[in-house]
């Protein structure tokens, strides 16, 4: 079906925002606050691909309240779901499958202290922010994907086209076909989160990362547990690194005790690993058997599962965040501060600054489509820029020197020099390019799940409430369908079988009969395949709106 010939309805707005995560919602709220403060009429539309706001939101999460306090000083009175202040904060190095060492507080980098922060469900925080946005007059459209970019004749961004509904797996229109709409705007804010599919196109179209270091990523895998009340300590925050990750594979785990006798446990695996036999999902399942973690989970019940890629390149990987007709905000631009393992406050602040820049332009009678270069100045004069710059060496130090020496470097950098060491470490090698041939490694024999602490992928995906209409085009596009078998299988034992945390990719058969199967309906929209495929042959695009996971309380 030729989508260029479709007649589409069109709606006009002052601002269209793509993505109802913290950055997009903060942008929307701040725009409408400014409009009301200045007695201006403003039309703002926010589209969200999840079935509801929060359905696709996945984060640890321990958050700083700084940005929320700036946006809504009366957030407590408004009922923001920040109900669990951090009461105890611990950091461990796991030495083996049974041994661990607690790092004394005095030796922990300052950025990793969590006093004054809150354990939250970020999905619920976004649901609350959406209520505030709608109360301010924002039009929030959940279940609508931003499928394509719209351009003006001069090449500036003119808005987006929402995804068509009712297209069959053969690419032809079904009886239920409904064309997507053109949502036109003077300015469009892209807040899709890590590795946004339109953001990826914008990077290429406007060469936004031409002067940046390569972006780096991790995959975060998380579970929500109901645990034994006698083992629950509301506000306890535990982080750690080490076992089971080894052989150059780095990352870290988290265990947070939230409210209602629940705890969240997760593992972040850096996607710069070189061993194609590594399975982040199985590393996570193995990690939960460590006595430090197992003592809290034993006797409990796993109630939710999810996974999401994380942009962790930090300051050195920040792109140009403005282009004619639009702005990038939040994790679409990589504003997460990995030194703090936090990105909500920085994402929200970047969105608020974008709102202020756009509103200032519109007040001058701007009709849209301009390159709002003033956003650079606002960003560089903000605390988020200062914070990210001070943490610029954190990730590269861990990548170059490992957990122990890198941790020592970061302690000196953060605690003694306050992030102002007169040196900038660089890590400019893309994660996908770090993969090495399978012939250099031995296959990893992961233990079978016991069904109590560890589980298989399919039962995990079931708990993510993931659903896609099977009769639709596959949203995981192969540039060259032959590469998985002809190249990736022979060189890397096709690592997509293992780096995907949802069992989307399988190699069926052997030898000449081997074939690559994509189970797209399992996809939890983590974007890992788009990032880690060593041939860069997989492109993640949006499926029909409302598809994917439906995360509760995550």
Written overview of the protein:
There is one protein chain. Helix content is 26%, strand content 23%. β22 (505-508) and β23 form a beta hairpin. Strands 1, 2, 8, 9, 10, 13, 19 and 20 form an 8-stranded mixed β-sheet that branches. It is built from 14 helices and 24 strands. The chain has helices at 22-37, 66-71, 122-136, 197-206, 280-287, 291-297, 344-363, 374-380, 383-390, 394-416, 457-463, 483-492, 496-499, 528-532, and strands spanning 10-18, 44-48, 62-63, 84-85, 88-94, 100-102, 118-119, 139-142, 146-151, 157-162, 165-167, 173-178, 182-190, 217-226, 236-242, 251-257, 262-270, 301-311, 322-323, 326-328, 476-478, 505-508, 515-518, 538-540. α1 packs parallel to α7 (344-363) and α7 (344-363) runs antiparallel to α8 (374-380). The chain is globular. The protein is an alpha+beta fold and 554 residues long. The model has no long low-confidence stretch (mean pLDDT 95).
Summarize the structure in short.
The protein is of the alpha+beta class and 554 residues long.
Q: Count of helical segments?
A: 14
Oligomerization state of this entry?
single chain
Helical proportion, percent range: 25-40%
Record field, number of beta strands: 24
Residue windows where pLDDT falls under 50 for at least 5 positions: none
Radius of gyration: 23 Å
Shape: globular
In round numbers, the mean pLDDT is 95
First-last Cα distance: 38 Å
